[in-house]
Amino acid sequence: MSSTRRVIAPWDGDDKIAYLQGGIETTGGSTLWLSGTTATRNREAQHVGDIAAQAVFALEKTGTALREAGYEWSHVVRLNWYIKASHTDEFWRVGNDAVAAFLAENGCKAAGVLLVVEGLAHPDMLCEFEATAVK
């Protein structure tokens, strides 16, 4: 089955924050929806207090789930980000650069939304990502 994608990015600088306005995907294939992934191992938060390290760890776990399902980062068409309100400033100072570098290195260009939330499932979780992939 063939698939084509047209990226919608009308504003300069979108590529510098790992964000696209949208895209049009034409496919006869399948869609994968991944629920939120966090920086946890065995139900324990990893990299406590370090939002950049937690973000990369959560994205690495998302990558594992993608591969397990037979997808790659290049198949991701929507990536939603949840950032704990108490760490929003830190995320913009250091976390976003780490996320942008990870996504660029892994060939991911996806639309999505960054939501600032009061809390996540565990008090030490600072961020969470959910992905939709199409192939």
UniProtKB/TrEMBL annotation:
Gene3D superfamilies: RutC-like. SUPFAM superfamilies: YjgF-like (SSF55298). InterPro entries: RutC-like_sf, YjgF/YER057c/UK114. It comes from the Bacteria. Pfam families: Ribonuc_L-PSP. This is RidA family protein. It comes from Pseudoclavibacter endophyticus. The lineage of its organism: Bacteria, Bacillati, Actinomycetota, Actinomycetes, Micrococcales.
